[in-house]
Amino acid sequence: MGYFVSGIGNTIAEMASVVKVLYFPHNTDMSLVISPTQRLERQLRAQGFATVAGVDEAGAGALAGPVVAGAVVWRDGVSGAGIRDSKLLSAGARDRMYEMIVEQSVAWAPGIATVEEINTIGIRPANLLAMRRAVEALALQADYVLVDAWTIPGLKLPQQGIIRADQKILCVAAASIIAKVTRDRLMAGLHAQFPVYGFHKHKGYGTRVHQEAIKKYGPCEAHRVSWSVFQK
Predict the structure, then answer these.
(1) Does residue 53 contact residue 71 with C-beta atoms inside 8 Å?
(2) pTM, whole model, 2 decimals?
(3) Are residues 112 and 66 in the same domain?
(4) Looking at the domain assignment, is residue 192 inside a domain?
(5) Which of these, 36, 81, 91, 184, has the minimum number of CB atoms within 10 Å of its CB?
């Protein structure tokens, strides 16, 4: 999983806590997880980039539903306490952090690539398309972009892709929460349209329950039918 931890000691109790961080990130002492910082954002501002946006996505590995990206320009001087990579937070914590980000960030926006686009152009191009749309939807135009893992084709702004940026950089962690919460809410809406699949629970990922529902009912228009799992 590659989660960052700090304060690793040699005692049995300390090692047990580290194991909880690595394998049970939703039920852990978050003091052991390195908090994302604004260090790089501030360095870029000192170089003249006044509006630094973080970007991340959610849903790339799902069998159904759109892929959603988030973009966030965090407000300098605001701590962002509690913001983490969305994968390290419970659903309730993500919802709380989402509201805080909406209220306290300089600018935020989601970007969506539809199931139809995923089926037409493939998941990676659709993923990058969602990211570009999120950046372009910001109410305040960014002048530098920090992206989790990738760089975004067609984006006419300086940018940097950083591995695990969602765990290291505050604006990217915030973007991961915007992406995840937005997508989860969209999947709840798809559940209302197609209730037999349980989208509100597994969010379109390939759980056993989801795969059994696909076998029983066949795919619906929310499924990424271009994927090889549907071609068997």
Answers:
(1) yes
(2) 0.86
(3) yes
(4) no
(5) 81
